Amino acid sequence: MILFPLGVGFSFAFSAFPGFGAISIFAPLFSLYKADSDLSRVVPTIFGAPTHFLFLTFFLYATLGAWFVLMLVRNLKKDREEVRLLSRWQAVGFVAFLNLLYYAFLDPQTLAQTVYLKGSISPREVSDAAIGLNGVILVLIGLATLAPQERLKVWWRRRRAGQEQYFSPNGLPWPWLAIAAAIAYAMLVAEAAGMRSATPLNSWQLGNAAIRLFAFLVFITRDILFLQWCNLTRMKRPIFKGFLYLCLYYAATGIIGGVVGTVSDAAAEFIFGLTMPFAAFSWKSLAPADVPGLYVGLVLQVVIVVFLLQLISRRLSRPVTAPAASAG
Predict the structure, then answer these.
(1) Angle CA 199–11–49, to nearest 5
(2) Would the pTM count as exceeding 0.85?
(3) Residues 57-83: pLDDT tens digits?
């Protein structure tokens, strides 16, 4: 039951572009019933090699199902507070796997320098879609790698005693988010380099892609560290309440930016760049003079990330107090 909505989501996401139409959820049905539709003539490909829908279906169910089995086996006998869907290294491997799927289903024949040709897709669109997909993946990985309160406190005490490193499977989640983002970008560069005989390397705009991915990484790191800090407080259901606070923040900034936009588009763009990562997807040049709010926002969010790390450190540094024993 979990695999079905995930499979539908992946199918819709990849079929949004002509280059990923090979795994549309409607293509196999149209092909089976010989419906008069462009999707009925779709031939699925893996790394450009034609394959069959039956093989593709079993492959996706087997590989995605293996990850869900791993998550279940890891957490079946654990208390709710100790549940972690994946270990840190497994989460990094999951990021690499999803990116591999993304590029495996890209049909190289649909790549073109212009998007005005029917059924074509530009390298810039492939790059933007990859960054957007990895933004969602980073959120999920950040949530999956949030450290339970007790385990994080044990890691902090061991680290201060010199028995464990800052970069640890039991430590804070942000270093692992950085590793996941680095892997995602490295795979994008590898894809662009592998297809440079068909499309020039500069058409992928890898520099702009790095800025976009970094913007997502900084904002997502801020949000995940905020949730980690909430998990160290005494509030009930801290992760859920922290998530609601984040929803309130994004809703408020969206409303403020929308209201300001009725007066000045430039001011609205600055506010959105200051408070959200989506300004990085502007079709303008990403030069600081063209999108100043984006760069000011990145500096501000880095400062907030450092501040959150200080708050978490103070929480973890508090001495453990035991209730005083009553006199007999």
Answers:
(1) 45
(2) no
(3) 788 888 888 988 888 888 787 777 667
